[in-house]
Design a protein that fits this description.
Radius of gyration: 22 Å
Pathway: Amino-acid biosynthesis; L-lysine biosynthesis via DAP pathway; L-lysine from DL-2,6-diaminopimelate: step 1/1
Structural class: alpha/beta
CATH class of the largest domain: Alpha Beta
Shape: globular
CATH topology of the largest domain: TIM Barrel
Cofactor: pyridoxal 5'-phosphate
Number of domains: 2
Family: Belongs to the Orn/Lys/Arg decarboxylase class-II family. LysA subfamily.
Bound molecules: ligand LLP
Subunit structure: Homodimer.
Binding site for substrate: 264, 300, 304, 334, 369
């Protein structure tokens, strides 16, 4: 399913707020949340899209939040999350605790999902009894790209499964309050891996000899970026995890809360990036079209070779055939600033309508890891974010100015 925001609406937002611009559809986010209601806790991995207005929407829908930095903790607080509510509204997940974050999680009592033994030690020293989760690296992972695989020997994430006993010894030494175990093996998980993760989870809880109140399935639910890619079967996903949870609850003799921690699944297909076509030129056998958004705005194609569906709008109407093989690129002073490229970096011409200067190029399914991965490379200010909700249109982040950027260096 791709973004449902109609062309005339996208054109109107681009007209009002200028280009490039991120646009999100609130209704679509609510619909995605509803698809996961079987899980006891839906915890949004806000790294996917951390705008505080979207976090507020999540909170209003009863969705908890994952924070991976001090900044993301402050975002959650600004969105109205309470640090100490039931079922842990905010959890801090990381592989290290920098000093400022350590002080803040202790001050607020925010549970820490520990990805290294040092986190347990440092937290235990600072705040014996603090609530913790343990993130386990089960020894294998899976991802849509090597760079999004977060398990196995090449991954820095989590506590290696063979070292769980020594991590638990630290939990005991500092009387840390263990909520449960967490595994996130990567983004774009398939069912085979999912079953293996569940098996490992059950095995690790058994081996640990510790009681747990909850287990977390992590995130990683995939979304169909291209036509023909399947939608994730959320019922099947739940059934696999629910079986593991029931097995544990039976053995432990009490209910075990089941969490899921998606980022992309909740927001990817809510968002588009609208950019204006500003130039086009033949380069040898390639036809280049240049738009006013670059990889500083949408980084996924340059970083992973990810492909986003692109449509072209002229006066709000979608332009159709004839299609010509096109290399779509941005304005940055760097040759990798190309939206249609192979994972290795070679340009990849894709069939697109014949454009005119002033057309809008709309990059679909960019609600996840779009705005949140943007940078100001080439001294390009961050672009605005706009939320549409039924008839309402709201600017939820203004366009950064060059003055904003330069002020940091005064
Ligand atoms: N939980 C943890 C501990 C994570 O590290 C992540 C993602 C998630 C949940 C959410 O994963 P998701 O459901 O969104 O797949 N920038 C990459 C994705 C990196 C994900 C990093 N961790 C991309 O654009 O595809």
């Amino acid at each position: 399913m791709t973004t449902a925001i109609p062309g005339p609406r996208i054109a109107a937002v681009a007209e009002e707020f200028g280009t490039p611009v991120w646009i999100y559809d609130a209704e679509r986010i609510r619909r995605q949340i509803a698809r996961l209601r079987q899980f006891d806790t839906i915890r949004f991995a806000q790294k996917a899209c951390s705008n505080t207005h979207l976090l507020r929407l999540m909170r209003e829908q009863g969705v908890a939040v994952d924070s991976v930095s001090l900044g993301e903790i402050e975002r959650a607080l600004k969105a109205g999350y309470r640090p100490d509510g039931a079922d842990e509204p905010i959890v801090f997940t990381a592989d290290l605790l920098d000093r400022a974050t350590l002080a803040r999680v202790v001050e607020l009592g925010i549970p820490v999902n520990a990805g290294s033994p040092q986190m347990l030690e440092q937290l235990g020293e600072a705040a014996p009894g603090h609530p913790v989760w343990i993130r386990i690296n089960p020894g294998f992972g899976h991802g849509h790209s090597r760079k999004t695989n977060t398990g196995g020997e090449q991954s820095k994430h989590g506590i290696w499964h063979e070292h769980l006993a020594s991590a638990l010894a630290l939990v005991d030494r500092y009387r840390l309050d263990l909520t449960g175990f967490h595994m996130h093996i990567g983004s774009g998980v398939d069912y085979g891996h999912l079953e293996a993760v569940c098996e490992t989870m059950v095995k690790q809880v058994r081996l640990s000899g510790h009681d747990v109140r909850a287990i977390s399935a992590g995130g990683g639910l995939s979304v169909p970026y291209a036509a023909g890619q399947p939608e994730v079967d959320t019922d099947r996903y739940f059934r696999i995890w629910d079986a593991a949870r029931r097995e544990l609850a039976g053995e432990l003799g009490h209910p075990v809360r089941l969490e899921i921690e998606p980022g992309r699944f909740l927001v990817a297909d809510s968002g588009v990036l609208a950019a204006e076509v500003r130039a086009q030129k033949p380069v040898g056998s390639n036809h280049f079209v240049l738009v006013d958004a670059g990889f500083n705005d949408l980084m996924r194609p340059a970083m992973y070779g990810s492909a986003h569906r692109v449509t072209v709008l002229r006066d709000g109407a979608e332009v159709g055939a004839p299609l010509i093989d096109t290399v779509l690129a941005g304005p940055l002073c760097e040759s990798g600033d190309v939206f249609t490229q192979e994972p290795g970096g070679d340009v990849l011409p894709v069939p697109l309508p014949r454009v005119e200067i002033g057309d809008l190029a709309v990059f679909h399914d960019t609600g996840a890891y779009g705005a949140s991965m943007s940078s100001t490379y080439n001294t390009r200010p961050l672009i605005p974010e706009v939320l549409v909700d039924g008839p309402e249109t709201r600017l939820i982040r203004r366009r950064q100015t060059v003055e904003d950027l330069l002020a940091l260096e005064d």
